[in-house]
Amino acid sequence: MNKSSSLICCFVSLMILMSSWNFSLHNFLSLAEGQQQQLSSITDSSKNVTDLIKSNDKNSSVQLENKTVNYFEKASGYLVYPTLTSSVETNITSKSNNTLPAIVMIHENKGLNENIKSMANLLAKEGYVILAVDLFNGEVTTDQKRASELTQAIRDNPSGAIANLKSAVTYLNSLSNVNPDKIASLGWCFGGQQSLQLALNSEEHPLSATVIYYGRLVTEPETLSKIHWPVLGIFGDQDKSIPVESVKKFEEALNANGITNEIYIYKGVGHAFANPSGDNYAPEETQIAWEKTISFLKKYLD
Question: Contact at 8 Å (CB) between 276 and 44?
Answer without folding.
Answer: yes
